[in-house]
Design brief:
alpha+beta; 2 domains; three-stranded antiparallel sheet; two-stranded antiparallel sheet; 4 helices; 45% helix
């Protein structure tokens, strides 16, 4: 059941939120696109996703958006530069500005 309070804010039940989050997890859509499809403001939807992740074990989210990736910068004195781990398990090491630009183009193409 969806309700509005006295100043017009929409209130959603816990069951509705859980159903929406489960559908999002199955959808494979981006968060903004899914929220728009459901008629939910994206900041509201993003807060639901964040709360869902907080309830899970640290570092293990049930609602995993595969568009995120892990990037580590070792620092200016390191020879390794930037290490990027893609969701499929591929690892890319970047050490020059030209490589960073190429990596950016690659990631845009994969999105």
């Amino acid at each position: 059941m969806i309700k509005s309070d006295c100043i017009g804010r929409t209130r959603y039940t816990a069951q509705y939120k859980a159903e929406v989050l489960a559908a999002y997890q199955r959808s494979g859509m981006s968060g903004p696109a899914f929220a728009k499809q459901c008629g939910i403001k994206y900041p509201t939807f993003a807060a639901w996703v964040a709360k869902g992740r907080q309830r899970d074990e640290p570092g293990v989210g049930k609602i995993a958006d595969q568009r995120f990736l892990l990037a580590e910068f070792a620092g200016p004195t390191s020879d390794t530069g930037l290490k990027v781990e893609l969701p499929g398990g591929a690892v890319v090491h970047v050490s020059t500005p030209a490589q960073v630009q190429l990596l950016g183009e690659l990631l845009k193409a994969l999105a």
